[in-house]
Amino acid sequence: MVKITDVARHAGVSPSTVSYALSGKRPISEETRQRVEASIRELGYRPHAGARALASSRSNVLALVVPLRTGIHVPVVMQFAVSVVTTARRYDHDVLLLTQEEGEDGLRRVADTALVDAMIVMDVQLDDPRLPLLRSLERPSVMIGFPAEADGLTCIDLDFKAAGEACVEHLARLGHRVVALVGSPPEVYVRQTAFAQRVVQGFTAAADRGRLASSVHPCEASPAAAREVAEQLLREQPALTGVVVHNEAILEPLIDAFEQLGLRVPADLSVTAICPDELAGNLRVPVTSVALPSAEVGTRAVELLMKKLDHKTVPEATLLPPRMTERASTAPRNAP
Length: 336
Known about the structure:
Strand order of the largest sheet: 2-1-3-4-5-11
Order of helices and strands: HHHHEHEHEHEEHEHHEHEHEHEHEE
């Protein structure tokens, strides 16, 4: 195993100079730093994590706070988590995953220790009870999601309001005049989860602007619930020809239910969704969708956090514009 003394001998400097080059704790000349870095690369030296932490006063660990509450679609959450972990490794950081619903107490417990350098917080609510603590902590944080009042915070997410608008506007351009949003499970709305509320805002605003008849229907994440919603929609809105789905788990069961009830997609009913591209593109009827950019959001959240750890200025708000891909599930409305 290559030791720091081996690097020092190879570079012709003292072990303490190698340590300063690694930690940045004391200034050294650029020529010396380059010589040390060249020796590290040539010898394949890997500094011990504990030594790095002591040298830099950092743990080189980020916390990813993802309370796995009811109504959360875990496969999508894990896409965000994988992106955060892989990007953190590029910055030589590990990730501590916190999944329990501990709220402010859990954040404070982690922040009051030397376990982590900074935090990424997910499943953000419009009036999130964790906000006062996040604003007061000395440790940097980034939120994946936008609360109602985001001043003094660093937030990043898909622009879910614009995504809801984009789905309705696409249906309106195809001539659809009666549309419905089949959304997340009811408990997600009860908690005022920010992304779900933003989709409703965008869907309703676009429908009102276009003078479309519209309705919003939360749906449990099960095939039985999808069937019940499909039956309810056809009973209450017999002229329905356009549906927006924001609930990954029931996208395919909902299409199946509509077709079992006699509506062909897209001949009789056009369907759009906000979901991962790989899901939308691989269904029996590929679905026109706004992509859920979990990989990009996770990567950029870590990049924002790294800049904050280096005391660099970052934007408070980063909203990713919606990207729609048209597929086989939407078509012009049939003339009456």
